Amino acid sequence: MVYKKFPLRSILEQPRLPSTHLPQYVVDRIVGKMSNDSKYFQYLLNYRKRFIRMTYAEFGRQSNLKPGICWPTNDELDFAIQYENKFEKSLAAMKENLLAKQRDEEEKRAKRKKEVMSNLKKLPKMKEEFWKNYHQLFENIREENIKKENLIQEIREYLGYSIEPNDPRFEEAVTKKEEEAKAALRSAKKLERQKQQIEMLQAMVAQALAKEQSESKALTNRK
Prior knowledge:
The chain is mainly alpha-helical.
């Protein structure tokens, strides 16, 4: 495709401005002028009062419109008054609502101020509780670190060599040690139950012997 070259001189001598290709009524509309060949009132829709008011507000006397037709009629004024009386609040009611709103805001502000002053009185106790909880939290963290270090040392002694907590063998050793501890606890509980059973049997035997001795003594006394 071959493009035709236009020298700069020809462009300057014969400028082609966009405005030369626009309709006259559009150009007049841009510069704020109402031309004779305008298209404002060629449709029935343009004769609505709203459009007439907009046209007069934009062009004024150039529109050749009478200002009086922009004003509402008596019927429209009566309807507006009736509408306001029926659905709109009166000035006294609006004033009362505004005063009530201001009173509510004042009450909320006073309540908030009272709450703030009450909290300020509680501030020393709250600070004391905060620092107490803070120190308790710090102490808990320190105890957890000590437990962790003790666990690492126990696992190293259990395995017999140095090992880091991030080593997979460390978790395996912890699991194995916990299982052994649980097994030892079960064994201890079992021994405790056996001990209690033996003590119960011994008590029963002692009770039976005592009963037998008392019965034999009673027979001897009868003879």
